Structures are given as C-alpha cells and as structure tokens.
Amino acid sequence: MSLSDVPTGEKVRLVDVMAGRGLKMRLAAMGLLPGIEITMAQNGGAGPVVIYVRNGKMILGRGAARKVKVKIF
Questions:
Q1: Which of the residues 5, 18, 19, 53 has the least number of beta carbons within 10 Å of its own beta carbon?
Q2: What is the model's pLDDT at position 73?
Q3: Are 14 and 68 within 8 A, CB to CB?
Q4: Does residue 48 surpass a pLDDT of 90?
Q5: In contact, 38 and 53? CB cutoff 8 Å
Q6: Would you place residue 13 in the very low, low, confident or very high pLDDT band (cuts 50, 70, 90)?
Q7: How many domains does the chain contain in total?
Q8: Which residues, at least 6 apart from 17, have a Cβ–Cβ distance to it below 8 Å?
C-alpha cells in the first residue's frame, strides 16, 4: 500500500521508498526511513498529504507519497 492510499487518522509503518536515489535521500534527510511510524493527518484524495512523524508534521506531494510503501499495524 502506498502512503497516498492511507486514510486520515490511520497509523502505518514505512516499509520502503520505491523511487530514485534523489527522492530516497531527500526523504531520509527528513527522517522518513524504513520502520518509522507515520500517522496520516490529512489525505483528501487530491493535493498534498499531511503526516505526523515523531513530533513533527510534514507535507508531501501526492507523487512522492505514491512512492512511499507502508503497512498498517
């Protein structure tokens, strides 16, 4: 399942980033690494997604969110 498919309020764990080196490095620098817990704050189906990671809030574009593979726990 990709991050862009996660409903608002759901908690997931990041499994992998299925993207090129540049996006992988950018997301890793933001703290999005395999095993991290993510809570979906806002996913309206269009536009960016808003997530909570650790004690911070992040906004990801829908294209990047589609490349982030997660699993519900």
A1: 18
A2: 82
A3: yes
A4: yes
A5: yes
A6: very high
A7: 1
A8: 23, 24, 27, 32, 67, 68, 69
Tell me the two tokens of residue 25.
């490095």
Tokens 């309020």, residue located: 9
Residue 50 maps to which CATH number? Answer: 2.30.30.90
Range of the domain at 45: 3-72
* Nearest one of 14, 12, 10, 11 to 24, comparing CA atoms: 14
Q: Measuring CA to CA, which residue among 5, 26, 25, 24 is closest to residue 16?
A: 24
| Nearest C-alpha neighbor of 55 from the set 34, 41, 35 | 41
Q: How far is CA 14 from the centre of its chain?
A: 7
